[in-house]
Amino acid sequence: MRTTRLNREIVIQCAMELVYESGINGLRLNKIAERLDVKSPSLYTHTGSVTELRQAVIHQAMQQFREELMDSLMGRAKMGAFLELGKTWMNYANEQSVFFTAFYNNDYLELYEKNISHFLQSAFKRIFVDWPLNNEEIEQIERIMTNYFCGQVDRLNGQPYVEAELISDLEIFYQGIVQNLEKVSQVC
Question: Which one, of 167, 140, 161, lies nearest residue 93 by Cα?
Fold first, then answer.
């Protein structure tokens, strides 16, 4: 595939396709150059090092994930928002598992914190708006949900999930969180 005008977006898109095929550690500049029918040195002006390219690819994937999560919340509140957020999260985790699992790699945790974690914390504050949550409670909800979806990706290994089971799990999580928040508010 000969490109007439090589730019950063084309390189990142090609890199994302390669990551999808062979994982983040399988990303090599020579593979991108081969696919784009260019010489490897010409990629450095658009990508920098392989490490910088991997960071850019994961950042792009995180932005797409965050946008999907954001869209899932539109026009929804409370349990409805929680369920849609969870379904979107599960869909992304299952369909884009190569990117999703890379998000939790130590090399990308800072990117995750900036791009996903802050968004999720804001989303949970909005979903549980009836309860004044402190940062520790928000982080705990995020941790529980993240662990759940990471476990599901490992368990499913690319196989389809049963939506009814997911919704049941999410309803249990939601009710458990609400009950816990109500107990805490009654004590205060």
Answer: 161
Q: Which ranges in 96-134 belong to alpha helices (H)?
A: 97-103, 109-112, 118-127
The residue with tokens 């249990």 is 172
Q: What angle do CA 115, 58, 105 make, to 5 degrees?
A: 90
- C-alpha 65/C-alpha 163 separation (Å) is 19
Mean pLDDT for the chain? Answer: 89
Inter-residue contact 34 to 4 (CB < 8 Å): no
Return the pLDDT at 139: 93
CB atoms inside a 10 Å sphere around CB 120: 20
Measure the CA–CA gap between 15 and 57, rounded to whole angstroms.
7
What average pLDDT does this structure show over 154-180?
A: 91
- pTM over the 0.85 mark: yes
Q: Does 93 score more than 90 pLDDT?
A: yes
pLDDT for the residue numbered 43: 80
Alpha-carbon dihedral angle through residues 51, 116, 15, 42, given to the nearest 10 degrees:
-50
Distance CA 70, CA 123 (A): 8
Tell me what pLDDT residue 3 has: 45
List Cβ<8 Å contacts ≥24 apart for 123-126: 123/69, 123/73, 123/81, 123/85, 126/73, 126/77, 126/81
